[in-house]
Amino acid sequence: MSYIKLGYIKVWFFKKVLKYLKIYASIERVFNNDIILSVRNFLKQNRPITTEHDLIRIGGSDDGGYLIPNDLIGIKYCFSPGVDITSDFEYYLYKKYNIHSYLSDFSVDKPGINCEGFKFQKKYLNSKTDSINDTLTDWIRKEKNDNDMILQMDIEGFEYDVLIETPQDILKKFRIILVEFHNFKQIFSQFGLKMIKSIFDKLNTDFYIVHIHPNKCCGVTETQGLQIPNTIEYTFLRKDRVSSTKNSKQFPHELDHDKEFILPSNFYNFD
After folding, report:
1. The pLDDT of residue 28
2. C-alpha atoms less than 13 angstroms from C-alpha of 156 in its C-beta half-sphere
3. Which of 116, 140, 200, 214 has its CA 20 to 30 A from that of 49?
4. Domain residue limits, the chain
């Protein structure tokens, strides 16, 4: 084969490759634009609102403290999976409001604070029940099957499994729900967005989002100008506790402990 013919084949081949790369790049841009638009719509549909219940801070000034609505009268119990070494939130609930807490975590042997208002079990919260795991449904039914409680959940990624598995009637037993969502940047993928949206659609049936706070531990992922904290805390309040709402537009809240790492405006500013 002559060098001239070989050169022609190479040029033809690279032109074909370049053509397909351009087509792929074009398809990828369209796909990415669709995802970004879908994420923006998700954020708009799940914007935080302000109710007649002012937010108060429960727990320490750092990790372990949360903003929740000042609507605690009548609540007797808190379920708090994910203990680690900090139990300031649960300790404060007991000392100031006499709210007893059930704690669960297989990774530790006991809570970091010794408190008579705590009951601890050495199990993970998960989507199944076995020797080292409990579902939220099974855990509640063997402890306190009340209809007005608090759920505070920081379980390092298992929150998605638990919220998908837990029936609606069990979630409705909680007046206030606090969830720390890990790896939230997966919302930029088709599967991640579908999963997260299904969970929030489920929660939105009976709850309002009353506060959002980014966790400074894991940074922010940005795509096409859209910023998503990789770990983010959501506070939910059951809708039957609310009579008036308006969109929240001031972040950070005056009680948020970290005013340098603030919630990106694409979570609440849609004007």
Report:
1. 47
2. 8
3. 140
4. 46-267
